[in-house]
């Protein structure tokens, strides 16, 4: 006996078609929503990145202006010596310097390491002067300087290439900063002239031998 095919139910087919249309509509909405969210996220990230870049550039410009001001403004109460009058001969005998600490003159053939080196004990002045010739700033202090100031200055020196620090018991000021032909005395590490002196004279225009080594020299304690 031959089988008979059931007659399709128009209502059921219509419901199935409607469900499929609704499913396709949901998929389209989900795709549109995903694209919209992704676009918004990308736009937000691009906008945030642009804002960060603008902020960074503004900060860099401000820092450059500050550094330029520090370099062009005289350091208050700074002492200066004619660089041409300061001897630059290499000697291996003690040198009698007219200022303490010395800011230039004949010096030992080897320099003190000055790559942010902090020495707890006095260093040979003849070697330190050679470091100044290479463009280093030499920070010195005596027992008038507070422990807090010594610690703060140590941190500054440690993060500054072409600088060194050591005690000089018989210097006149509590804290003194020296470069080739330049020197300033301050009472505390927070004195704004400290930062200015570093900015102005680390590898500054007073340097007789800019770019010369500050490593592979004499290592003190």
Would you spell out the secondary-structure blueprint of this structure?
Layout (H helix, E strand, L loop, with lengths): L9 H63 L6 E2 L34 E4 L6 H9 L3 E5 L5 H12 L4 E5 L7 E5 L2 E5 L5 H10 L20
Parallel strand pairs: 2-4, 3-4
Antiparallel strand pairs: 1-6, 3-5, 5-6
Helix pairs in contact: 1-4
Task: Give a written overview of the molecule.
It comes from Streptomyces globosus. InterPro entries: DUF3105 (IPR021454). This is DUF3105 domain-containing protein. The chain crosses the membrane at residues 32-54. Keywords: Membrane, Transmembrane, Transmembrane helix. Helix 1 packs across helix 4 (192-201). The chain has two domains: 9-72; 79-201, 3-Layer(aba) Sandwich (Glutaredoxin), CATH 3.40.30. It has helices at residues 10-72, 125-133, 147-158, 192-201; strands at 79-80, 115-118, 137-141, 163-167, 175-179, 182-186. It has a six-stranded mixed β-sheet. It is 43% helix and 12% strand. Strand 5 (175-179) and strand 6 (182-186) form a beta hairpin. By secondary structure, the chain is an alpha/beta fold. It contains four helices and six strands, in the order αββαβαβββα.
